[in-house]
Write a structure and sequence with these properties.
The protein is about 30% helix and about 25% strand. By secondary structure, the protein is α/β, with parallel strands linked by helices. The chain has one domain: Alpha/Beta hydrolase fold, catalytic domain (Rossmann fold), CATH 3.40.50. The strands form three sheets. It has an eight-stranded mixed β-sheet with strand order 1-2-4-3-5-6-8-9, with helices on both faces. The chain has a four-stranded mixed β-sheet with strand order 7-11-12-13. Strand 8, helix 9 and strand 9 form a beta-alpha-beta unit. Helix 2 packs across helix 10 and helix 6 crosses helix 7.
């Protein structure tokens, strides 16, 4: 199931009355340690594919990124899919997409399947798992997942993947984009902010394309500059987790900065229409509506003029996690519950066509015959 982190925090503090004591203790015990991974690769010059460990870092919050403060070194993990054309030694380099999963993790029917879909259409795909490198597994409690790994961690992994993919002999370093689903879609859109790119990939021009599948829109980073690459967004009218008015506002802000934004809103579609979970209303699924979370120039966030989390740069990751737990009051009035999630084959066909059309135009490639 895909949910946003802030509503979860609100519900946590609403249920646990001794939020500053009981929750602190529970969270400290439950947050998983980083795993001991193999040494990360620093380049892909040998042309490898499949599972890859690579170097990234964990900033946790936007203020850490914008201040270029020291980030926790992390070994990232992803799976690289290459098109058939990229297997030949004399083949021309192909474009690629970095793929970011939703807050529920990699879901059946979605991220890995889209890696295969892209590869079958002549586009390499690197499916990033931003949970596993930070100790999160399928058994990890959902609340702990979204407490301990943030959208800014996902963005950092995406930019590290961008730099790594640029070293692959079969990938065109100038034609690498990023696509995300739900939480990952929000991260992909945030990655358009040039302040973030300058901190994470200062030697690179940035992503050549951005795709946001139903990423929530209540957060306003205050982006004032992008690299100008186009954005594709895809949303549904029955997905209450996407405030369509707020999403249009975010998209119009990007258009005002000179970006091409292609927006698709599918009538009757819910959330996560590609996954194998049967389509249904999840009445307890929380979302944010009616509020805008704004970030100031230092990367601290405010809702209706009230600070959500205000931390010194030196604050540890664990203490930042605990502060997120105690920040629920600022968002309480914005939290609603209940929206439609699950498989919708008709919408998937339409959104797949929109995705491939957008990428073919952006990357200037011809349609490739699908694999059997």
């Amino acid at each position: 199931m895909t949910r946003s982190i802030v509503p979860i925090l609100v519900l946590v503090c609403g249920v646990l009355t001794a939020c500053s004591t009981v929750t602190d203790s529970l969270v400290r015990r439950a947050v998983p340690p980083f795993p001991d991974f193999p040494s990360p690769v620093t380049d892909l010059s040998s042309g490898q594919s499949g599972e890859i460990y690579y170097a990234t870092s964990t900033p946790f919050d936007l203020d850490v990124l914008l201040a270029d403060h020291e980030r926790t070194p992390t070994t990232g993990f992803g799976t690289l899919f290459l098109p058939d054309a990229a297997d030949a030694s004399d083949a021309a380099p192909v474009p690629a997409m970095v793929v970011l999963h939703g807050s529920g993790g990699i879901s059946k029917g979605r991220e890995m399947e889209y890696g295969e879909l892209l590869a079958s259409n002549g586009i390499a795909a690197f499916v990033v798992n931003y949970y596993t490198p930070r100790g999160v597994t399928e058994e990890t409690n959902y609340m702990i997942r979204v407490l301990s790994v943030t959208e800014f961690d996902a963005i950092t992994d995406a930019y590290a993947a961008l730099q790594l993919l640029g070293t692959h002999p079969r990938i065109d370093a100038q034609r690498i984009g990023v696509v995300g689903y739900s939480y990952g879609g929000m991260a992909a859109r945030f990655a358009m902010d040039e302040r973030i790119r300058r901190r994470l990939a200062p030697e690179r021009p940035g992503f050549a394309a951005f795709v946001d599948f139903y990423g929530p829109c209540f957060q306003n980073l205050g982006t004032s500059e992008t690299n100008g690459s186009p954005l594709l967004t895809l949303r549904g009218t029955e997905d209450a987790s996407n405030d369509l008015a707020a999403c249009k506002q975010r998209e119009d802000e990007l258009r005002a900065l000179g970006n091409s934004v292609e927006a698709h809103v599918y009538q009757g579609a819910g959330h996560a229409w590609e996954v194998e979970v049967p389509r249904q209303l999840f009445p307890d699924s929380p979302y944010v509506a009616g509020c805008e979370m704004k970030y100031d120039d230092t990367g601290h966030n405010f809702v209706n003029g009230k600070p959500v989390i205000d931390t010194p740069l030196e604050t540890s990751r664990m203490d930042r996690i605990l502060l997120r737990v105690s920040s629920g009051d600022a968002m309480q009035e914005c939290v609603k519950e209940g929206y439609v999630i699950g498989s919708d084959p008709e919408t998937k066909v339409r959104s797949d066509a929109a995705l491939l059309s957008f990428l073919r135009r952006t990357f200037d490639i011809e349609a490739a015959p699908a694999r059997e």
